[in-house]
Amino acid sequence: MRFANPVSCAQCGVVRMFGLMFCLSAVATQLVAQQPVARQISSGGGSNSSTRTIAVAGTAALAQSTEQPLPATPPPEVGAAGSVSGNIVDTDNAAIASAQVTLREAESNSPRTMTSDSTGAFRFDAVAAGRYIVRINAAGFAAWTIKDVLVVHDGESIVMSPVQLGVESIVTSVNAITVEDLAERQITAEEHQRILGVLPNFYVSYIPDAAPLTRKQKFKLALKVSADPVTYFTVGVTAGIEQWEDDFEGYGQEFSGYTKRYGAIYGDRLSSTFLGAALLPSLLHQDPRYYYRGHGPVVVRALYAIMTVGVCKGDNGHWQPNYSNVLGNLGAAGISTLYYPQSDQHSLQVTVDNTLLGVAEGAFGTLFQEFLLHRFTHGTPTAAPQPRMPSQP
Predict the structure, then answer these.
(1) Mind listing the pLDDT tens digit for each residue in 355-369?
(2) In whole numbers, what is the pLDDT of the chain averaged over residues?
(3) Does any domain span residue 13?
(4) What is 235-277 written as a DSSP string?
C-alpha cells in the first residue's frame, strides 16, 4: 500500500526510523550480552551508600536482583591431571632439603622420583587419577612411608601435611662368638707363628688378653707342635750331634744307636710338652703360653720374662704360681729314667738338678722371646682390634 500525502510520508519515515533504531538496539543488545560488564549498583544515596562488585551479562543482568550470589566454580573436567605436594621437616620443624621423594602408583607399581628443594618442599604435577604410595628418604633420617594409600581424583590437587622425619635408626650387627670359638681362632693364628718362617713358635701369645684354652685345645696345641715336621727334623739333628759326640754310650753306635738317641730325645720333648703344656695345665686350669709384653722399660720387661717361668696366667685371667711348668719338667725328668741306658740313669738329686736347670733354660728362653725372637717370628697377629674377654673372678 502506498501513502500519497506528505503526512503519510512523514509517518512512514518515522516508522522507518523507529524500525531502524529498533534493529540497531537489538544488535547492540546481542553484542553486550556476549561480554559481561561490571556495574556498580548503588544501595542508597548520599555519603552512607556502599558498593559491591558482581558480574552481570548484558541487559539481562539489569533485571536481576543485586542480591544474586556468584556462580559456583565448575567441577574439574574428567581426565584432567592432578598434583601431589608437601613439605619435609625434621623433629625441630626445620626444612630438610635434597630428600628423595618417591610417588609410586599402587596398581602398576611405576614410580616417579624427585628431591625436595631448599625449603623442604616437593610437588608432583600431571598426576593421573589413581592410588599412590609416597615414600621419603633423607640422609641421616629414618625412612618414611605413608601409612594409607593416597587416592587422587581427576584434576585434584592434594597438599600433604608436613612430613616429619625422625633420626635414622642405628642397626648394629653383632656377631656372637663363644669363648671356645674365640680361643680356637686365636690358636689357629698362633699355629702360623714360626721363627724365620721355619721353627715353630706356637706357645707365644701376642694378644695380651687372649681367650683361655679348653682342655681339648691345650692337648691339640701340644699335639700340633709335637707332630710338626720341623720338630722331627730338629730331633734328628740333635740325635746326630749326640751320636757324633758319643753321648749316652749305652746306646752304642751304628744306626741302632742313632734311633735310640732319636727316640729318647723325642720322648723327652713329648713328655715335657704334654705334661707341662697340656695335662697339668688342664688339671690346674693354667695357661701354658708365654704372653709377650713388648712395652715398658727394659728392666721391667726382663723381670717380667724371668718371672713367667714361675708365674703364669690362670684360665680365669689372674696370675698364679706356674705349677704346670715346674711339675712338668720334674715329671719329664722322672719319665726319662725309663728309657735312658742303665749306666746313664741319674739319681733323684741329679733329676732335681736337671729340673732346676730346665727351669733356668726356660728363663733364658723367655728372655729371647721378649727381646729377640718376636723380631724374626713370621705370622704374628696384626694390630687389628681383637674381641676382649672379661676376667673371671
Answers:
(1) 677 777 888 899 999
(2) 78
(3) no
(4) HHHHHHHHHHHT-SGGG-SHHHHHHHHHHHHHHHHHHHHHIII
